[in-house]
Structures
1.
Amino acid sequence: MNQEVTDFIEAIKEPWQVELSTRLREVVHQAILDPQERIQYKKPHFLKNGKYAAVISTSKDAVSFTIFNASELELPEGKFDGPPERKTLKLRKGDSFDTAQLVSWVSQASSAL
């Protein structure tokens, strides 16, 4: 794990955003064997074989998790936004997610990278 990404997550002001970001990072590590991590455009990016697999970003009231290479995924209606090639899940305080399902989607999306 990249120390810059760890520092980024630990520096988030809202505890619920730290918790969600930490859990989303764990999702990536479960889905991708030894992902590359780096801070780019002021947010954590996760790569497989040098290609973008996922990104975590925070805003005032949400944590967003973007899955790249998502064109082939069968995602639930209304949960994800964005063009077919990258889908974003926006989580707000009190929201939860199905860890196993998210791991599966990230794994599927990154399998071709």
2.
Amino acid sequence: MIKDLVDEAKINSEDLCTYFKISETELNKIYSSPSLNSEDLLQWSIFLKYDFFRIYSQHLILYAPPADTRYTRKGSEHKKKFKNIYTKEIIEFILEQIKSGEKTDIQVVEDYRIPKNTLYKWKKKYNQ
């Protein structure tokens, strides 16, 4: 994604090397690397004005396993306090999958563990 954004912005590799104080070889390693440490990713986010961390946080929201409720007492006050964890981008992404026919309502509920009622409200709110 970094390489794609650099190409899209038509940024010269020499300028990147100067800014990040790295060689052309190191720049190419970054492009081909499957991961970066968080400090480097933050620097790229700032430079390219793109939140690369959002990709990971949205992935966690969509694919995180459900909370293990075996250890909570009934009536406990340890209930989830996260009411609105879905960003507008996630909602639009999910509704677009339904609209395009890529997924059905049932598939969305099962794959992303979104309550049926929540999905219904999104569809009603966003006129789908």
